[in-house]
Amino acid sequence: RGGRVDGHAPGLSGPDLCAYAACGIMSDHECTTADEARERLRLGMWLLVREGSAARNLDALLPVLRDWRPSRACFCTDDCDPGDLVEHGHIDAIVRRAIAGGLEPIDAVRCATLHPAQYFGLRDRGLVAPGHRADLCVVDDLAEFRVRAVYKDGARVAEAGRPTFSLPAPAGPAGDPGPAGRAARAAHVALVPISRLDPLAARALQYASRIAGEVIPVHVSAGETIEDAEAPGRESARFRAAWAAFVARIPGADGAAGLDPIIITSPFRSITDPLLAYIDAWRRGHPDPLCTVVLPELVVARWWRQPLHNHRALAVKRALLGRADLAVADVPYHLESAAPRPR
């Protein structure tokens, strides 16, 4: 439908390569030798010179670029690790290396700008000319090729390696800013462990919604693997299916409405350890907001019945009470007050 078909054909040559090109394959970024590159150029294919973190073919293909100065050659990385991006750069790093290897600077720039725009049919890019988009890089010189400033649609967006604009909070589905965006916005976040969708959970969510700008419900499904979580009839699937209707019935639980619960699967019977691991991981990723872990607690009329309940909540509370980076709140639910006494 008017797109480009990129090829992956290392070592292919002769009649097989001719048949490959005749099928509409327009390029190849898997060339590792100068002979392979020349053969593809002779057949009218585009040569994508790969120089990434794993595969590095620039040195082997530079003689072709220097001698032939082809008009159908581009630079690509085909995966570049974040560490290499930060330390060395991206396509600009390939331009620097090509120039250092003897390629004319104007040819190196064309392989990074004009030629890719022509290959991918981006008619309004690749040139500094009337009618083209003002997407520009300003460099110190054509030898070192160090980027001084970046312009996007004519507006400066980076200078001296730093952005000149503020990034918005990441957006999620249906206007939800996502966990990172919500944590950045909220002055107070409440984490609410929920075992079952019962009155205890409803009371805890109601309280959390009143004290915090963001509520994160957390449920641990014990005895389930990640593969089991989506299977119909399993605990995780039942919990997720019943969540929206459950929250809708809780008066004042606006902070939890519309939020999907965090469901953690654990192949073991333990619920406390996976929950504590999640709280630790969440706090490391969100060190700034005030955080309260809200624990529902069942209160019974007879004191001697109390040890029969709340074992998990007590274990979580004991593990968290010594921490200075978060607070713990008990939300009592009085069992006898939920229903009239039998006569």
If you had to describe this structure to a student in words, what would you say it looks like?
The protein has twelve helices and 13 strands. A hairpin with a 2-residue loop joins strand 6 (147-152) and strand 7. The relative contact order is 0.07. Helix 5 (91-100) packs antiparallel against helix 6. A five-stranded parallel β-sheet has the order 11-10-9-12-13, sandwiched between helices. Mean pLDDT is 82; it is low at 338-343. With 343 residues, the chain is an alpha/beta fold.
Summary, kept brief:
It is built from 12 helices and 13 strands.
Order of helices and strands: EHEHEHEHHHHEEEEHEHEHEHEHE
Largest sheet: 5 strands, parallel
Number of strand segments: 13
Strand content range: 15-25%
Task: Briefly note the structural class of the backbone.
Answer: alpha/beta
Mean pLDDT over the residues = 82
Radius of gyration: 30 Å
Helix share, percent: 25-40%
- What sort of overall outline do the alpha carbons produce when their principal axes are compared? elongated
Keywords:
elongated, 343 residues, single chain, 12 helices, 20% strand, 5-stranded parallel β-sheet, alpha/beta
